[in-house]
Each structure stands twice: as C-alpha cells, then as structure tokens.
C-alpha cells in the first residue's frame, strides 16, 4: 500500500515539475498544536524510509510540513508505515495546506510514523 501511494503521487507531481537531481534526504517540521505551535521538532530525514515519531509526538501531531516544495510525506496511523492516513505536500506548492494543519476529523493526533519521498523522480 505504501509504495503505491508514493508511486501515484510522485508520478503526478513529476509530470508537472522540472527535472531535478534525485535527493537522498530533506527536512520535516511538525508540532503538537495547530499552526506550528506548542512542542515542535525539525528533523532531517532520509527519503523513502519509514520514520517512527518519538514518544513526545506519537498520536499528538497537529501540524506537519515537508521542508521543500519537491518533497511530499505520507503520515501513518501505526509505527511501521502500514496504515496511511494522509499525504502532505509543502505549503509552497499546496495553497490548500492550511498552514500544515491536519484535519481534526481524520488525521489530527493520529500519526505514529511518516515517510517522505522526492516528488521529482
């Protein structure tokens, strides 16, 4: 399921983006409150690798954003990136991102892991 999400989204984004060098890592920024408030973390992450969030953030993330416009991240409801709950793009290219705010009805305070990928393949 996880690879299907990345393949679908990467193909869509790559078809509308300029060619770029494949990157191995990027940063993410996430917080326990909306609008990037409260306890926050900036983290450099290896792309296409499942990252389980620290106990301080497990099932507490309310704002999440990839570090660059050429990265997207999937959030998962489990620690092993098996149950996807959202795909997040940078607000640089997603004007509907609501400042990284996760939907209170479906994704807020549910993420236990995430995986990011280069949107330009």
TrEMBL record:
Q: Does the keyword section mention Signal?
A: yes
Keywords carried by this UniProt record:
Signal
Which residues, if any, are the signal sequence?
Answer: 1-18
Q: Does the keyword Signal apply?
A: yes
Name of this protein:
Fungal calcium binding protein domain-containing protein
Question: What is the organism field in this record?
Answer: Lentinus brumalis
